[in-house]
Amino acid sequence: MTSLESTAYRAALAAIESVEPRIADAVRGELTDQRASLKLIASENYASPAVLLTMGTWLSDKYAEGVIGRRFYAGCRNIDTVEAVAAEHARELFGAQHAYVQPHSGIDANLVAYWSVLAQRVQEKALSDAGVKNVNDMSESDWAQLRAAFGSQRLMGMSLDAGGHLTHGYRPNISGKMFDQRSYGTDPQTQLLDYDAVATAVREFRPLILVAGYSAYPRAINFATMREIADEVGATLMVDMAHFAGLVAGKVFTGDFDPVPHAQIVTTTTHKSLRGPRGGMVLCTEELREHVDRGCPMVLGGPIGNIMAAKAVAFAEARRPEFATYAQAIVDNARALAEGLLRRGATLVTGGTDNHLVLIDVTSYGITGRQAEDALLAANIVTNRNAVPADPNGAWFTSGVRVGTPALTTRGLGVAEMDEIADLIHTVLQATSPGTTPAGAPSKAKFVLADGVAERVSARTLDLLAPFPLYPSVDLT
Ligand code: DSN
To answer: Tens digits of per-residue pLDDT, 414-429?
Structure first.
């Protein structure tokens, strides 16, 4: 019998086909590619058909700048419902005082957070020493003075090569330009966060915002300790949990390792380990709420109703008990993958993992991250290159490959399959060597993969994936 999902997607594709067949082909092609490849990109996942279908609705057609009940457009009652339900699920899921579900991405969420902290501090300062009783009484010149003072505010986040994100103050990113920034790294020997060293750096620099969180650090962070460090200098602790939000939602990271009770403001994406639609979100304390809620139109374009609806569906899924089982399986799988790689002689940044990702230092294979990424792709293994601490090859070529388990765990693969995956990765990396430039010099990009390896490993990946069909309820034939 044809499933409801198959009927829905066949109808959708027929509608697309009648207008632009190349797009219908790309949609079909993406499903074929995703079904056939071993997806180990740590920031990707497979959203449920319910989440995907919610995105394809007419909620997309509505403008709704502003917040619930206070919009700049008429006729927003259904978008109000959508936003309220998504925010309610988010608050319940994470135990947050306030949830702002409008950001379109993690970068947007971080910009809203930075703006909100600055705005709150400006307001606080205005109330205490700008000689006004209410922020609304501030004159243009009061604001100008405060803006000038805050233009030199300081931000401190984890350095990119230690696993931090571009938006945590990386110089070329807007966050590195809008703040006077400095970063903290990891211990040169252990590659782990050294909280005493972070505290010393924070005491010296005295940032306004201390950012914790990462996109390539394979360990849990003690947010209670980070809050103590921030409090000592009066900094606001902001946590970017984009990568590990699913592990927080699934109660793998609890107590000191759950950012929500410790940070004043927490940002996330919704599509990584949380398994929702592509998007962002900000969670915060009541104190920051009024500023965060001004995210649109201060920082963001109009909220995207169909995406907020899909967030609500994904959060409802994440509140089910089976999501906790899923979150634990992500971590169990990452650990098994790390152990499998270590047993085969690979070098891992920090020597292992506590979360959903493993960062392989490919220097010991004599290749760059770029060569490793391309060689793995040739063998049907999709990963991404990533800098390692003090990377000699910089942020473009890199010396690392980041692999993560959220997507394959959704697909149903478990610990036994992770050992086979470790073997596939090691087999490819061992068989890869640097190529040469057209002038005959050693290349950091070109690679040579020993004959037959790509074919043999590709065949093994297909065998491995066969018992775990992706979107089994969707048949487009
Ligand atoms: N693109 C995300 C990642 O891969 O980690 C972060 O921006």
So the answer is: 999 999 999 999 999 9
Calculate how far, in angstroms, residue 153's C-alpha sits from the geometric centre of ligand 1: 26
The answer to whether residue 240 is catalytic is yes
pLDDT over 90 at 132, yes or no? no
The SS3 of residue 369 is: helix
Query: Which amino acid residue places its CA nearest to atom 4 of ligand 1?
Result: 43
Give the predicted TM-score (pTM) of the model.
Answer: 0.95
Domains and CATH numbers, the chain: 60-318 (3.40.640.10), 321-465 (3.90.1150.10)
Q: What separation in Å is there between the alpha carbon of 207 and the centre of ligand 1?
A: 25
Q: Is 420 a catalytic residue?
A: no
369 has a pLDDT exceeding 60: yes
Q: Ligand 1 centre and the CA of 159: distance in Å? A: 15
Torsion on CA atoms 93, 95, 101, 104, rounded to nearest 10 = -80
Ligand 1: residues with CB < 6 A are: 43, 106, 165, 215
Q: What is the pLDDT of residues 294-336, one digit of tens each?
A: 999 989 999 999 999 999 999 999 999 999 999 999 999 999 9
What would the mean pLDDT of 427-434 be, rounded to a whole number?
A: 98
Which of 108, 165, 241 should be mutated for ligand 1, with most atoms under 8 A from CB? 165
Pocket test for ligand 1, best of 43, 272, 373 (most atoms within 8 A of CB): 43
195-205 vs 223-232: helix axis angle to the nearest 10?
Answer: 20
Residue 102 confidence (pLDDT) above 60? yes
- 285 — phi, psi (to 5°)? -80, 165
Position in ligand 1 atom list of the atom nearest CA 41:
4
Q: Which two tokens stand for residue 331?
A: 């971590």
Return all residues near 371 (Cβ < 8 A) that are at least 6 apart.
362, 432, 434, 435, 444, 445, 446, 447
HEC per residue, 409-421: HHHCCCHHHHHHH
Is 278 an active-site residue? yes
Contacts with 466 (C-beta within 8 Å, 6 or more apart), sequence order:
none
pLDDT digits (tens, 9 = 90+) for 142-174: 767 666 666 668 999 999 999 999 999 998 898
| Distance from Cα 43 to the centre of ligand 1, integer Å | 6
Residue nearest to atom 3 of ligand 1 (CA): 43
